[in-house]
Amino acid sequence: MFDTLKSATTNRKSVETATSKLIAGAIFGLVFGFLLQKGGVGKYNVLIGQLLLQDWTVVKIMLTAIIVGMIGVSTLHHFDKVNLHVKPTRIGANIIGGLLFGAGFALVGYCPGTAAAALGQGSWDALFGMAGLIAGSWMFAELSGWTKRTVETWGDFGKLRLPDLLSVPRGVFVVCFAGVLILFLVVVQQFTTR
Amino acid sequence: MRTNMPSSVPMISRPAALLIGSLVLLFTCAATDAGAGVDALDYPGPAWSPYIVGAGIGVLSWLTFYFSDKPIGASSFYAQLAGFLGKRIAPRRTASLTYFKDKPPKVGWGFVFVVATIVGGAIAALTGGEFANEWLPPIWEARFGDSIALRAAIAFPGGMLMAFGARLAGGCTSGHGISGTLQLNVASWIAVICFFIGGVAVALPLYNL
Q1: pTM of the model
Q2: How many angstroms separate the CA of residue A175 from the nearest CA in chain B?
Q3: Band of pLDDT at residue B35, cut at 50, 70 and 90
Q4: What's chain B's Rg over C-alpha atoms?
C-alpha cells in the first residue's frame, strides 16, 4: 500500500519529505471535505437540484472558487512562486468524456469529490456511486490503449490556455475574465432563490 | 484504425456538434416544461453561504499549489483504488493495461487527500448537527420510493459512467471544474460545460418524466 514510502530511499530526509507531503495532503483534504459539507454539496438534493436548474448552490460555489483561485494562483505564478498543471486540450475526449461524466453525475447525484464528503456526512448511498467509480476506472483502464489511439487523438491541441487563444497579456485577461465571471454570478444571484 | 490526421477531426466534430446541439435543445425544452416532478428547494440547503465556501476552496487552491505543488482533484483516487484491487486480483493483467503503465497506482498526495475529504465531511456534519445516517436521500425517496436496491442499481452504473467520463476527459468536477478552470485551461472549460450539459440532460427527464 505505502509504495511511496517504500520507494523513498532509506535516507531519512527523503522519507521525512514523503511523509510530510502526505500529511500536507491530509490536512488540505480535511479542509476540502469540511468546506464541501458546509457548502451543502455533500447533499444529494442540492447537487441534483443544480442539475434540475432549481438550486444554484453548486454554480455559486464553483464560480466563486474559480474567481478567487484564479486571481491568487495567477498572481503567485506571475511571481514564479507556483507551477501550473495544465491538462492537454483534446476536444473529442473533453467533450465525449465530459458528457458521459455529466450523465453519470445525474444518475449518482454525487461527483467524485462530493461523494467522499457525502460518505463522511453519513449519506451511505454514496458508497454505491463510489463502487461504480472504482469499476468504471477499471473499465477505462481496460480500454485505455484503444482510447489513446483513437478518441484522444481527435482535436489534440496539447496544453492550451484561454489567454493563448486571444493573444492578450495574461494579466489583462485574468482581470477581464474575473469581471465577466463576477457579472455572471451577480445575474445568477438576481434570478435564483438558492 | 484512424490515424492522427487533422482530416479526421471534422468527421468527429460534426456528429459531436449535432449531439451537443440536440442536447441543448432537449434541455431547453425540458427546462421550460412547467411540470416539475419535485422541488429541490423543499429540502435542506447549505449550512454556510456558497460564497464563503467558494472563496475558501479558492484559497485552499492557492495553498495546495504553493505548499504541495498539486491541484485539487478527486477522480484519480478511484482509479488508484481500482489499480490496487487489480494488483491483488489480476496482477499481470493490471500491469499490462496502458492506463496503469502511464499512472502506476500508489498512495500519494491525491490519495491521502480524498481519504481526508471523507473525514473532513464527517467533522463538518457532526459539528453542524447535519449527520444524515441514511441510505436514501429524501428527494430520491419522494420520487422513486424506498427501495435501496433501486438506488444502488441506478447509482452503480452511474458511477461507472462518471469514472469513465472523468478519465477520458482528464478530470472531474474538482480537477477540471475547479483546478483546471482557475488555471484558464481550455480543456477544463470545455469539459465543465459538458459536465453540466450531460448532467442536466439526464437529470431533467429522470425527475420530470
Answers
A1: 0.89
A2: 12
A3: very low
A4: 20
Question: Which of B64, B121, B125, B53 is CA-nearest to residue A34?
Answer: B121
CB pairs below 8 Å between A and B: how many?
A: 593
> CA A141, CA B170: separation in Å to the nearest integer?
13
Helices (H) and strands (E) in chain A, counts: 9, 2
B170–A88 CB contact, under 8 Å: yes
Residues ≥6 apart with Cβ < 8 Å to B77: A112, A116, B110, B111, B113, B114, B115
Averaged pLDDT for residues A55-78 = 98
Integer Cα distance of B31 and B34 in angstroms: 8
How far apart, in whole angstroms, are the C-alpha atoms of residue A141 and residue B39? 39
If DSSP codes are grouped into helix, strand and coil, which group holds residue A93? helix
Q: How far apart are CA B161 and CA B164, in angstroms?
A: 5
DSSP type of residue A41: T
Q: pLDDT tens digit string along A77-109?
A: 999 999 999 999 999 999 999 999 999 999 999
